[in-house]
Amino acid sequence: MNAKKSKVLSGHHTFDLIIIAVSVVVIVFAWVMIAKSFNKYKSVEAELGVQINEFLSNNDYLKILENLESEKSSLTEAYDISRQYISAESDETGIMNLITDSIAKQGGSLSQIRFDNYEKLSNLTKETYLIPFSVTFTCDYVGLVNILDELCLSERLMIIQNVNLVKKNTDSVNNELTVEISAGTFFRPKKVTN
Amino acid sequence: MRNISLLPAQMKRDIAMAKKLSMAATILLIIAIISLFTYGLTGLMLLSPLIELESMERQNIHVSSQISELKPLVELYNQVNSNVNEYNTITNDILPANIVIHGLCSNAPEGILLSRLNVGFVFSKGEQKAIVEGVASNRQSLALWMNNLNDNQYVYKVMCKTLEEVTDGNGKKTYRFTLEIPLKEGDQA
Question: Is the domain of A61 the same as that of A102?
Fold first, then answer.
């Protein structure tokens, strides 16, 4: 009878030991997986934070771009105007035409246009040259103001450094002036690519 | 009354051991079930941020594609900015000749006749000044004009350098003058 009871107990042991072994395996597996899940959760949260920040900054940037898009026509116009400030060619002929046309329009008479040597500008990042020139002509006061307006507001940037005007006759009837203007315009040679 | 077991000592130990084993098995089984449940829960917890991450990635791709479509505008904007900056750098120290000349000459009162005007517009060369020579029929007209010039936005100060009384053949007096007018910098104007 004792042997029988001992056998029953031994069967019980085996069953309990199997449960214990399986439970331990399950617990270890579960906690390994929980740890992995936890790590994944942390990395997903971190990635989500990165994505949210990226989204917010991209969204802000997109809003700026949409504003630019709504003003595209003005921007294109501004670009068309601003790219003409500095010519890609020295184009002295163009300068001469502008000046002679302007003086002729105002009923003046051109005496001389003189171009001096190019001067490289040191305060600009891109290689840019000043084309200094001086113009001598005669015209009346209103004509002078209009010529100065045309030069100052021309599409190609012109700077007027000095104006010297002398009244031809000192009587108040004759309003003719002899004018000498020292001015300059700019050009930026295109880079030669091989 | 005492509970006395007459079983052999070996069997008593076996029974105690069996009870302990059974209890350990039960406890471990419960822990295993709780662990599995916890694992299930963490899986569920992970689901929400994963879905959110996926949706955020989709939105980012969408926004990025919109940005790349509009990117040429930024280049255009930068180019305009760069051109305008260059314009400002070049014209920074130069006064607008058309406005300055008109401002100097247009408000001369009657009786003032200008014979010569020389205006320098470049500040970096220290030449931002006007020299005016002329004739005034009387001193009051000259004083009035100097006063008017002082109100000009580009005029720093009007200084009378020379004033000479001239009498012509008919005995009429006129005043030959030279004014020196330092000009203000563009951003002060």
Answer: no
Residue A94 carries which DSSP code?
H
Q: Is A193 within the bounds of a domain? A: no
Residue type, A193: T
Q: How many CB pairs under 8 A join A and B?
A: 206
Q: What is the pLDDT of residue A9?
A: 57
Q: Tell whether B105 lies on the interface with A, counting CB pairs under 8 A.
A: yes
Q: Which residues pair with B163 in a beta bridge?
A: B177
pTM of the model: 0.71
- Which residues span the domain enclosing A59? 1-85
Q: Decide if domain B97-183 falls under CATH 3.30.1660.10.
A: yes
A2 with A74, same domain: the answer is yes
The helix (run of H) or strand (run of E) holding residue B76 is helix B9-91
What average pLDDT does the segment A23-35 reach? 93
Q: In terms of domains, do A79 and A112 share one?
A: no
Backbone angles phi, psi at A4, to 5 degrees: -65, -45
The domain boundary residue, chosen from A85, A108, A141: A85
Which residue type, as a one-letter code, is found at position A43?
S
Segment 16-55 of chain B within 8 Å of chain A by CB: 17-18, 21-22, 24-25, 28-29, 31-32, 35-36, 38-39, 42-43, 45-46, 49-50, 52-53
Instruction: Provide the number of structural domains found in chain A.
Output: 2
Residues B117, A165 contacting (CB under 8 angstroms)? yes
Q: Which of B22, B49, B113 sits opposite A16 (nearest CB)?
A: B22
Percent pLDDT > 70 in chain B is 96
Q: Domains of chain B: which residue ranges?
A: 1-90, 97-183
DSSP state of B103: H
The continuous run of DSSP H or E covering A112 comes out as strand A109-115
Shared domain check, A182 and A121: yes
Does the pLDDT of residue A118 top 80, yes or no?
Answer: yes
pLDDT at residue A193, rounded to an integer:
54
Residue pLDDT, tens place only, A58-69? 999 999 999 989
For residue A178, give the 3-state DSSP assignment: strand
Work out the pLDDT band at A114, boundaries 50, 70, 90.
Answer: very high
